[in-house]
Amino acid sequence: MLARLPYTLLWILALPLVLLRLLWRARRQPEYLRHVGERFGRYRIAAPAPVFWVHAVSVGETRAAEPLVRALLARWPDRSVVLTHMTPTGRATSKTLFGDDPRVLRVYLPYDLGFLSARFLRRFRPQVGLIMETELWPNLLAACRKRRVPVLLANARLSERSAARYARWPALTGLTLVALNAIAAQTDDDARRLAALGGGRVDVTGNIKFDIAPPESLLQLGDAFRARFGTRPVILAASTREGEEASILDAFAACAPDDALLALVPRHPQRFDEVAGLVRARGLSLQRRSDDGPVAPNTRVWLGDSMGEMFAYYAAADVALLGGSWLAFGGQNLIEACAVGTPVVLGPHTFNFALVADQAVEAGAALRADDPRAGMAAAVALLRDPSRRQAIGAAGRGFAAAHRGATERTMAIVEELVGCGKAPLPPGRR
């Protein structure tokens, strides 16, 4: 409690600023002003008991959670899943993935103050909690421990940079990790870092994102996109981040053949119009995914202004540049590209997915480049070499298939948590 006191006081002091940030973000995404009461533990819905609780902050975590949620629903058909998020895009993604399934409820997780966490737990009374990837909330986990709700940190990853940040507050970090009943880490390195910070049971289960199968509906949508493009070669800039698009557009204008089309998909929907402005400022003709009809032959850039369709974008492209890897954002998930057999070119900054990126390059499923211009040149070279492009695509499919199985290994831990009732699990592999 003493270790959490300064943290709690900071939260209380920061709460007015947090609300102002909500208002600020609502300027671009009005959805931030919907369901505000849920962020304070006020809910209008109730879930039929018993329930599993899965926390997935935003889009990436929600997509990663999909195989787990489906496995939970299949394994326990008499139970429901409460999916909690922190962003409207994460919430919208869960709606896209699970539709109106009455057994999947979606709400916002309250801010990390003890009395708000208690409200959430009293409302839904989860039997087990699964927190995706790296979300460590000290007061929430303390509330779970007090109410004897077993919690698993699933698909856990922790970069060296993040581990160094957590290490600055060893007492708080250790207390938080000890409150977890188990940790299912993606890699040996992730497990080592989490154990060094104070994690108790840490198992290496692999990356659940390898278990996400390309939905047939999105593969068909990819075919429809391709029909709109015609026979033109297509370079995809996938999940780009602020500051990357300008360099990618300049590299495309300088390096790509005149008949090539750049499919540009920003990661955050509130930036769609901003990125469209960058395209027009360079004199490049633009169409949007939201426009109807085929892509005109003289269109140079096709803006992917939609959410939840990344598999379709990858399936429609000849080669992809991975966003988030050209500046120090840490990269994005490249598994979707590998799964559909699209060669992917990575930038130098992939520390959030370091092992997956290195393994993909080693397996011949991806290429590395130092900057957007070198990345675009590598993409253009692949357009001109169909046999090499096909070989990299086939290597990507094999790479994705070889690393599946994390969901099954994680579910084995969940079954232990359910079976052990309220007791902590015994120590596991470090």
From TrEMBL:
Enzyme class: transferase
Source species, domain of life: Bacteria
Its EC number(s): 2.4.99.12
Catalyzed reactions: lipid IVA (E. coli) + CMP-3-deoxy-beta-D-manno-octulosonate = alpha-Kdo-(2->6)-lipid IVA (E. coli) + CMP + H(+)
The Glycosyl transferase family domain, residue ranges: 295-397
Keyword terms, alphabetized: Cell inner membrane, Cell membrane, Lipopolysaccharide biosynthesis, Membrane, Transferase
Domain 3-deoxy-D-manno-octulosonic-acid transferase N-terminal: 35-212
GO molecular function annotation: transferase activity
Chief site of localization: other
Pathway info: Bacterial outer membrane biogenesis; LPS core biosynthesis
Cross-referenced Pfam families: Glycos_transf_1 (PF00534), Glycos_transf_N (PF04413)
UniProt-annotated location(s): Cell envelope; Cell membrane
SUPFAM superfamilies listed in its UniProt record: UDP-Glycosyltransferase/glycogen phosphorylase
PANTHER family: 3-DEOXY-D-MANNO-OCTULOSONIC ACID TRANSFERASE, MITOCHONDRIAL-RELATED, 3-DEOXY-MANNO-OCTULOSONATE CYTIDYLYLTRANSFERASE
Annotated function: Involved in lipopolysaccharide (LPS) biosynthesis. Catalyzes the transfer of 3-deoxy-D-manno-octulosonate (Kdo) residue(s) from CMP-Kdo to lipid IV(A), the tetraacyldisaccharide-1,4'-bisphosphate precursor of lipid A.
Family: Belongs to the glycosyltransferase group 1 family.
Listed NCBIfam families: PRK05749.1-2
Name of the protein: 3-deoxy-D-manno-octulosonic acid transferase
Source organism per UniProt: Aromatoleum buckelii
